[in-house]
Amino acid sequence: MLTLPTGEFPLLLQNNYDILLVAVFAVSISFIVPKLWKRNTNVRGSIPGRLGLPFLGETMAFLSATNSTKGCYDFVKQRRLWYGRWFKTRIFGKTHIFVPSTKGAKMIFTNDFVQFNKGYVKSMGDAVGKKSLLTVPHEGHKRIRRLLADPFSMNSLSQFLKRFDSMLCQRLKKLEESGKSFVVLEFNMKITFDAMCEMLISVTDPALLQQIERDCTAVSDAMLSFPVMVPGTRYYRGIKARRRLMETFGKMIARRRSGKESPDDFLQSMLQRDTYASDEKLDDEEIKDNLLTLIIAGQTTTAAAMMWSVKFLDENKEVQERLREEQLSIMRNKPNDYLVTLEDLNSMSYGLKVVKETLRMSNVLLWFPRVALNDCIIEGFEIKKGWHVNVDATCIHHDPAFYKDPMKFNPSRFEELQKPYSFIPFGSGPRTCLGINMAKVTMLVFLHRLTSGYKWTVDNPDLCLERKSHIPRLRSGCPITLTTLKHGD
Ligand code: HEM
């Protein structure tokens, strides 16, 4: 043991005092300088969170949330409670950041394809095809999007609007007359699918519709599966279904080219470009892959959003009444067999707020995945090349800084202008939803017919979410019973 001569002790103390001073100074410098440097370069340092074991990371926790009736976003919520708004995690071997801010969203959306790209997995590319808008590289994407866009503009949708409205009137009437409870989600899935197939490829034959729908569901299920061609797996079923669909679309294209049929629809508008220069038309693979993409991207999203609108309106009767008043005033002075027009939609200002509030609350697409193409800094946090940065639309839509009392269904909040990037249910930038107008038209017409023609009761109050779904949907599908609205109701 080291003993100190008493006479030397003060000196040593003096020396220690100096050493202590130097040490404190050194430690302070080592803490302060990096902080100053970080402040200067606006770098906050590393993002908190647990990466866990190599590859596996927190995959099991993520899968467990996805398989629960709280839904996969519960995984994100839980980590926010532990680590704060910014956190990192590892899922399936990839580092993921959930970007919770409008600043972060802006940076990612405005640099899409340049600093970030859609983080798609092999199974997704195999399922929807290499020429799909969801998978094609930048230049191809720009061209394909430009050529696909016109049929989805508001003006081009008037035919779709008429067909959807008349289909909806008939089906709702039949259900009301039956007096039976029906599952809104199933109803919405079927009607959005049928209406889209009619608009895109003029298919109305029930047997063919059923086959296409079954195959599209199999393809959609395969998009996030393990890509091995083993019979019995989701991937195998999806790839087989894709081949059948490509064949069906191929035969349709051949019949139209031979002049046997030429209906006025989306597919025909693409084929009319056959004689155009190559950058002004889509080749057959591009047409087929994007037909499939449009059906898959449009059906489940719109159907889920419509289901949530029914649920939210049931829970908020004063909103339902206000919406009904607006819709009844639109149908006044119209003949009994009227169909909704684009002008009518323009006068549904409260209806549009209900649509927006439904999309804000329900977050049909919870987050939008991207991969960082280079090391970069988002809001002061260092992001490494290859990390997955997910624009967390749900967090932004539920942020009290943008939406007072965010969990209250209050469409009137949309009387105020939204802050940039605080309302992004359809994304933003070059990948903004192509079906944004179609989705709005569908939802508005649905709300119009439902509230101006009927009242309804929700027959199952269960709030549990469907397991294993990446789109939040009620497990019950929201069963309801309709009754015709009578004068004086
Ligand atoms: C309420 C209904 C809908 C919602 C909430 C929705 C939401 C979105 C969002 C957020 C994106 C961008 C995703 C990202 O940035 O990663 C997107 C993309 C897309 N949506 Fe929709 N969508 C809806 C309906 C539709 C419909 C009806 C169609 C077409 C018929 C459609 C077709 C597409 C396509 C093709 C893309 C890819 C665009 C691209 O990458 O350039 N969507 N949608």
Automatic annotation (TrEMBL):
Topology versus the membrane: Single-pass membrane protein
SUPFAM superfamilies xref list: Cytochrome P450
Binding site for heme: C433
Cofactor section: heme
Domain of life from the UniProt record: Eukaryota
A GO CC term assigned to this protein in UniProt: membrane
Annotated localization: Membrane
Primary location: membrane
Keywords recorded for this protein, A-Z: Heme, Iron, Membrane, Metal-binding, Monooxygenase, Oxidoreductase, Transmembrane, Transmembrane helix
GO biological process: brassinosteroid biosynthetic process; brassinosteroid homeostasis; sterol metabolic process
One example GO MF annotation: heme binding
Similarity field: Belongs to the cytochrome P450 family.
Matching PANTHER family: CYTOCHROME P450, CYTOCHROME P450 26
Name recorded for this polypeptide: Cytochrome P450
